Amino acid sequence: MALRLPRPHRFDVWAALAGLLGGLLLWGIGLGTRPADEPIVLFDGRWPLLVPLAVTAGCELLRRAAPRTGLLLGTLALAADTLTRGSIVTLLMYTDLMYAAVLYGPPASARRIPWITGLLSIAASLVPYAVWRVPEALLIGVAVGILSFAPASTGLIVRNHRDAAEAARLRAEQTALLAEMDRTQAVTAERARMARELHDMVANHLSAIAIHSTAALSLDDGNTSREALTVIRENSVQGLAEMRRLIGILRDGAGDREPAATPTLDGLGALVEGARANGLDVTLDAAYDSVPAPVELAAYRIVQESLTNALKHAARGEVSVRLRRRDDALDIRVTSPYGDRDTPRAPGSGAGLVGMRERAALLHGTFEAGPESGPDGTADGKLWVVRARLPLTDTDTDTARGGTR
Description:
Helix 2 packs parallel to helix 4 (88-104), helix 3 (67-81) packs antiparallel against helix 4 (88-104) and helix 4 packs parallel to helix 6. This protein has a 5-stranded mixed beta sheet, covered by helices on one side. The chain has 11 helices and 7 strands. It is of the alpha+beta class.
């Protein structure tokens, strides 16, 4: 399998080309870094320095694609350049290779190269000085530091700033994503809340309208039809008023509009009277004190929906509503006769039970609904029982309505 070399970056191609042309220009005018009579110059003449120059320019093509390979080959080229008259362009390109190896190389290399070059710079200062005992020997370490440690440190600083900027960008994206998730959850929760409110406020009235309109159409009795139309009109007016309040809240979201659409347990009496007007035999047994406002609203809606379901599905008989305040919770129990009715008096979607369960869950309470045997234990005495327990909190109690009902 043939070895596939990485494709160089466009900027690296221009850097390699500029370095090569610059080096050729200095070579053409005969400018080198060392005179020909220095002892270190083993390859005299102008031509030998072109080899390190060409190799270093080729390494510039690898400064991003393979920075460690480029630095290794560039180090060998620099060592060869020291045996010739040398080129300043080769030295400059080597500093760029050192910088790129730290900036674009693996994290481990980025941490190690500055330490290695720093130690080499110290050693290049101390060892020659210890051997020759002349201050000029320290300049060797300075030169090594300029060629290796300085660009490596610069690359590390730039890399740290780049990593910090990338981390900040990722944190900003994560924060934006979390904010979007929170917004979506808030919108979903608000839509669910408004759906529950819309269902609980309107379903009761529409169910009564459907039942009494059916009675008015099926019975050829003027008095019965008049009574049914009266109930239909009352429920239509009440339902329309509830709809207008809800639409007002949705349209302008004014905080002062919320209490108008938030019933309390004081309205249970009127709620039961309305159910009786719709034909239910309802009894109310309520004893509670200092109930928080959220619990009050949830309890009212659960009782309201339970009476609506009884109006649509219950057999003939007594419907019982019972509320009791315990030390830490408000207990609700609504029972209605559970008959073998083929079809309900009014159509339903099942959203009522879902809404009641959601209301109890939002308050960390419990909710159950289903048939069970009546007091006599017979199948004919079955009841449909709705049970809910809504926990109370001390913080909300302080703001709740007082008094014993």
